[in-house]
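Hi Q.,

Before the meeting this afternoon, I wanted you to have the zinc ion prediction in hand. No need to reply - just skim if you have a minute. The sequence and ligand are here:
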Amino acid sequence: MSRRTDRVQRKVRIPSNLGKKKAKKKVEKVGEIPCGISNCKDFSDKHMGGRSLSQENAIDTWGEGGFTVRKNRVRVCKACYKIWKKDNKDDNNSHY
Ligand SMILES: [Zn+2]
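Predicted structure with the ligand bound:
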């Protein structure tokens, strides 16, 4: 009979003002938004350092069709953003 109690307790919200130090918050860094670059399996979530680029920017680095567009933006993971940044430093910023 006691089975019922430990089965569905996920949605129960325990008030945080109980004054107990028991509740340890579990922070899991799990990605939800996959990186838009075709051969990349990373995540582009903000808390994981992901960014979004414009389509033009992404084409410059990965070429057309080398990425997935979401709402006119290309979501990239941290690593891919670094690649893009490096790629763009060379020809755009040295403009003297
Ligand atoms: Zn990536």
